[in-house]
Amino acid sequence: MSAPRTMLQKVIDLHTVEQRAGELLLYVDYNVVHEGPFYAFDGLAREGRAVMRPAQTLGFADHYVPTVGRELGSAGIADPEARGMVERLQANAERTGIVHFGISHPQQGIMHVVVPELGMAHPGMLIVGSDSHTCTNGAFGALAFGVGASQIKHVLATQTLWFRQPRALRISVDGSLRPGVSAKDLALAIIVRIGMAGGSGAAIEYAGSAVRALPMEARMTLCNMTIEAGARAGLIAPDETTFAYLRGRPHAPQGAAWPEARAFWQTMSTDEGASFESEVVIDGSLVQPMVTWGTSQDEACAVSDVIPDPCAMTDPARRTRAEHALAYMGLAPGMAMKDIAIDRVFIGSCTNARLDDLRDAARVVRGQQARIPAIVVPGSMTVKRAAEAEGLHDVFRSAGFEWREPGCSMCTGANGDLVPAGERCASTSNRNMEGRQGKGSRTHLVSPAMAAAAAITGRLADVREMAGA
Predict the structure, then answer these.
(1) ∠ Cα 292 294 297 (to 5°)
(2) Which residues 6+ apart lie within 8 Å of 66 measured at CB?
(3) Could you give the percent of the chain with pLDDT greater than 90?
(4) How far apart are alpha carbons 47 and 185 in whole angstroms?
(5) Spans of all domains in the chain
(6) Using CA atoms, how far apart are residues 96 and 91, in angstroms rounded to an integer?
(7) Alpha helices in 312-447 (DSSP H)
(8) Res 67: pLDDT
(9) Are 33 and 130 spatial neighbours (Cβ–Cβ below 8 Å)?
(10) What tens digit of pLDDT does each residue of 127-176 get?
(11) What is the pLDDT at residue 378?
(12) DSSP count for the chain of H helices, then E strands
């Protein structure tokens, strides 16, 4: 009888083609790219090589697309460099035959939103991408992670990738999340607990009753933030929630293939008795709405707390980092989080721009009025159409929010959507380092409901105290 295996090990075993000292050659089910790694295509062309399996490489215009003036296509991109990136991806797609979700595609959107919503991510798959947040797809029980341009080139040419096996870390969240607490809050609480390098060299399996209770979109948020804890990938065991989400989606198994696929997917969960190199247990009932105060994701606390004093931190490196962060953020120890005024709000990104995220924000916004500039950027055209069918765009517009076209937008600012220097932004994105949303910008990471609350009050606010939350 074989030894019990983790979900991570099962996926690796399924995809191993060859082994050499310390590395495995793995078969790749999907290779997902955005506008950035054009030099991988250039290198392939110089060598006279074709893309081995074009149908398994997906190209997305998301980082550089505008969120206004979309009807003009790439001609509406004012920045010539950004326009060139979008057009170069299209040219590479046309030349190589890869699947292309371009600026005018009816299912265009952020790559980490569109792949799951089309039913492309399945339990047991191996998915790589040109962006670190490819780990989002781990919510389906897939092994998914970001790679560099040279690795993208290798996958384009061979549909395989050399890989060093990560250690297996299990994070179990027991109990239940309380009302007003989201997967984004849980992700930040986990990162605070283990540190921004706590998952270094690991693939994290999220388990426990609180994780099993999460709907698929919330699971995607949790896995999306795995990279912010330093881990390579995050996985959640497939279950009835997974199967219900996938059923009927365009790229999910259809007809007689469905029960066969479902039976296989049920075998992908970690075996009872399988061992992990390390484990962490968290009481989900203790997690509160979170907000970052510094310039890394582990510099966060409950919105009801005060900013910690770096002098009380025993780790000298951590203390120095916190002091620098507070200086950059223009904050001081002991300040109440709820006293911090906000200049603008961004609701979007691959972390929190799905339909459920927009519904959460709209519940807080309904019947209210924004005090500060706020924009809502749906994660995909599919999300945008669904939200508009429910009237969510009218809720946001009536409250003074801007309703825009899909893309990465103010998460990276690569398309020109930026936070002015010195301004504070309550953002549903995933990174808060210096200058992430624009030179001199100050970012506070929050959930969609918390971002909506900040827009209505003009400060960081506890969404549990808001009407409609």
Answers:
(1) 55
(2) 76, 77, 78, 405, 407, 415, 416
(3) 97
(4) 47
(5) 7-163, 167-286, 290-465
(6) 9
(7) 316-329, 355-365, 381-389, 392-398
(8) 96
(9) yes
(10) 999 999 999 999 999 999 999 999 999 999 999 999 999 999 999 999 99
(11) 98
(12) 15, 19
| pLDDT tens, residue by residue, 270-294 | 999 999 999 999 999 999 999 999 9
User: Would the pLDDT of 467 be above 70?
Assistant: no
Domains 7-163 and 167-286 share a fold: no
Using DSSP's 3-state secondary structure scheme, residue 22 falls into coil
Instruction: Determine the straight-line distance between the first and last CA of the chain, rounded to whole angstroms.
Output: 51
- pLDDT value for 1: 63
In the numeric block, the tokens 């506890």 are attached to: 462
Handedness of CA 62, 63, 69, 75 (dihedral sign): negative
Distance CA(306)–CA(302), nearest Å, equals: 8
Dihedral of CA atoms 342, 344, 347, 352 in degrees, nearest 10, equals -40
- Interval 354-367: pLDDT, tens: 999 999 999 999 99
Tokens for 86? 């979008």
pLDDT digits (tens, 9 = 90+) for 171-210: 999 999 999 999 999 999 999 999 999 999 999 999 999 9
Q: What is the mean pLDDT of residues 371-392?
A: 98
CA-to-CA dists, residue 7 to 4, 20, 275, 383, angstroms:
10, 22, 11, 30
Query: Which H or E element spans position 151?
Result: helix 149-158
Nearest to 288 by CA among 299, 298, 302, 300: 302
CATH architecture observed for domain 290-465: 2-Layer Sandwich (3.30)
Sheet of strand 167-174, all strands in order from the earlier edge strand to the far edge: 233-236, 202-207, 167-174, 278-283
Do 300 and 453 form a contact (C-beta atoms < 8 A)?
Answer: no
Q: Does domain 7-163 have CATH number 3.20.20.70?
A: no
Q: Enter the tokens of residue 97.
A: 């035959």
Tokens representing 327?
A: 């200086």
Inter-residue contact 441 to 340 (CB < 8 Å): no
Q: Is 174 helix (H, G, I), strand (E, B) or coil?
A: strand
CATH class name, domain 167-286? alpha beta
Q: CA–CA separation, 298 vs 248, rounded Å? A: 38
Angle 355-365/448-457 helices, nearest 10 degrees? 30
CB 11 within 8 A of CB 140: no
Distance, in Å, from the CA atom of 143 to the CA atom of 175, rounded to the nearest integer, reads 26
Give the pLDDT band (50/70/90) at residue 468.
low
CA gap 76, 432 in Å, rounded? 29
Radius of gyration over alpha carbons of the chain, in Å? 21
Residue 149 CB neighbours (<10 A): 17
* pLDDT score recorded for residue 466: 86
